[in-house]
Amino acid sequence: MVTFRLHRKGVIFIIIGSILAAVLLFACGYLVAMRRRPPAPVLPVTASVLPAPSTTAPAASAPAPKGDLLAVRVGVFDTEEEAKTMVQQLAVRKLEAAIVPMTTTDDVKLYTVEVGQYDTRAAAAAAASSLAQEYGLHTAVVPAGR
């Protein structure tokens, strides 16, 4: 009859080794995931989605303050290259888009992509709603940063 016995030190080494292996696997997975970024989304946006910028205000819509234009923000990126990719995708669809750099309160620089210039909030909201419904984009009406 064969008896298998582990010494107390052996059991401790096995437990510590298992914990170290788990930590190393987690760290490697985290580092690999941080290096892999998902590709920029391909947006099938067409020119017919956005209404033309309005020069006259509808009766129910208050115009933006004089000299202030509104735009539809369609993306916020942490690198300028990603923002340029989205602008190129929108340009293929005959949409004029602009990259507007923005610095947060923590001094983090972000790059926003804005489409269109609108005189009224109603026109900008209609364009934002159309983009959101048609293509699933997360949009926001913001002051034009151009």
CATH H level, superfamily name of the largest domain: Sporulation related repeat
CATH class of the largest domain: Alpha Beta
Question: Regions with pLDDT < 50 over 5+ consecutive residues?
Answer: 45-49, 55-60
Helix percent reads: 25-40%
Based on Cα principal axes, name the global outline.
rod-shaped
The DSSP helix count reads: 3
What's the overall average pLDDT, rounded?
A: 79
Largest sheet: 4 strands, antiparallel
Strand composition percent: 15-25%
Number of domains: 2
Q: What is the CATH architecture descriptor of the largest domain?
A: 2-Layer Sandwich
Report the count of strand segments.
Answer: 4
The first-to-last residue Cα distance is 85 Å
Structural class: alpha+beta
Radius of gyration: 26 Å
Q: Enumerate the strands of the largest sheet in spatial order, edge to edge or round the barrel.
A: 2-3-1-4
CATH T-level fold name of the largest domain: Alpha-Beta Plaits
SSE order, one letter for each helix or strand? HEHEEHE
